Amino acid sequence: MAPVLPYRDINLLVSPLHYAFRSASSTSAPTLVVERPSGELRLDNVSVQGAKRVSSIAGILGIIKLKLDKYIIIITKARPMGRLRGHMVYNVVSTEFLPLRERPLHDPDEDTYLSLLKQFLQNSPIHFSYSLDITNSFQRQSNSDPSAPLWKRADDRFFWNRFIQTDLIDFRSGLSDGTGIRYGQLSDVDPYILPVMYGMLRITPTKVKSTPFTFALITRRSRHRGGTRYFSRGIDEHGNVSNYNETEQIIILNDSAGGLPGFAGGSGMQNGQLRSAVGKDLHVLSFVQTRGSVPVYWSEINNLFYIPRLLIRSVDTAISAARQHFSEQIRIYGENYLVNLVNHKGREEKVKKAYEQLVRTLITASSESTESDPLSSEKLHTVDSSIRKQEMDRLHYVYFDFHNETKGLKWHRAELLLNRLTDGLMRGQYFSGVESLGDPSGPLDIRLLQSSVVRTNCMDCLDRTNVVQSMLGRWTATRQ
């Protein structure tokens, strides 16, 4: 069964009574109609009366309700970023808001909300693909149903526009529209639902000797507990932590299709996919890391002082939420190596102690060790479970005194942490899969699975975390 993929090109038609969206290439597909000003959705198999074609768009980002009105957010321009396994990936360049009603008078609140949203989208690194699920790592993709619609395969954590796609998803799923009418399942809506990912994405095609390969780095930001530095810290009652990101490092060997030439299509394209180097198996290597705020209830209160006030609630209050968080992490990634890089003295010490107390409480029986040297009285500190009785015993806590050990730009000393993690990294491996020759759209033949993850944090999950994740990424690439 062929996969259900989003429409690549959609004609936008506008009338005073509705907006209509019609696939330019699938002429037999029904038109999606949004009534004005009610926002009611319907599918229409005939031409929409009185509607005029305004433009061609790259996709529908979603529908959002503000103070006075609903707006359809459309993607008006997208830039190709490169290919992964032959599938083109795009960056959202520009968007437009379509109001459901014309307002004769301006409302200052509504105008402010609109301005903030437009500014946010203008500066946001939003990416998507019409034929590849970039919200999931290659390993998770290998376990998904390729015949399911792309939006149904998306990882809920990284399906960035999931909330503003609610109207379309509810309409497709047969939920009540608020008038008491319950529709049946409407699979014809699937191609109009385009999942996007928020984060960093770089694709670099190159060659080593005569072997073409593509190197890619993707960081997916969670849509849960988003927020800016200082204003969003710690965990919430649902187990979501601030600054949570998944980073996937990808190497695709024998891949001659990683670049941009021919992105508009051509004889080599099949369902939006370009074939790999002729006569050679395409080999995918992937390594995943995560980062996220220390999973207890803590905050930094902004005031007139340069350094915000740090508040931490009792660790006991966070046990249930932290258990939810780590249960999900273990289910998705396996063994969890929790690397903590905050300072062990000064204001950050309270965060360190809270994290360690949390781990001791979650695991069955703790076994701890501490290493010191002339630079630090606590260079390394580990907390492991001495027995395996329950799920939380798959947590392995490793503290590293990053600032003291790397003082004076001595970044090489971070390898002290790498030495401590090596055994776990070797056991956890990385993902490796081979594309069957002559089957570019088929599943990968899995050779290796990654069975653990390193979850790194500092206070902001930024600079210190970046250094350590880069080190682990380089080490793994050398192994691969």
Automatic annotation (TrEMBL):
One Gene Ontology term of the biological-process aspect is: autophagosome-lysosome fusion
Q: Which PROSITE patterns match?
A: SAC (PS50275)
Q: Which Pfam families match?
A: Syja_N
InterPro entries from the UniProt entry: SAC_dom (IPR002013)
GO molecular function terms noted in the UniProt entry:
phosphatidylinositol-3,5-bisphosphate 3-phosphatase activity; phosphatidylinositol-3-phosphate phosphatase activity; phosphatidylinositol-4-phosphate phosphatase activity
Signal peptide per UniProt: none
Entry protein name: Inositol/phosphatidylinositol phosphatase
Recorded GO cellular component terms are:
cortical endoplasmic reticulum; endoplasmic reticulum membrane; Golgi medial cisterna; Golgi membrane; host cell viral assembly compartment; serine palmitoyltransferase complex
Going by the entry's taxonomy, the superkingdom of the source organism is recorded as: Eukaryota
Query: What residues does the SAC domain cover?
Result: 117-480
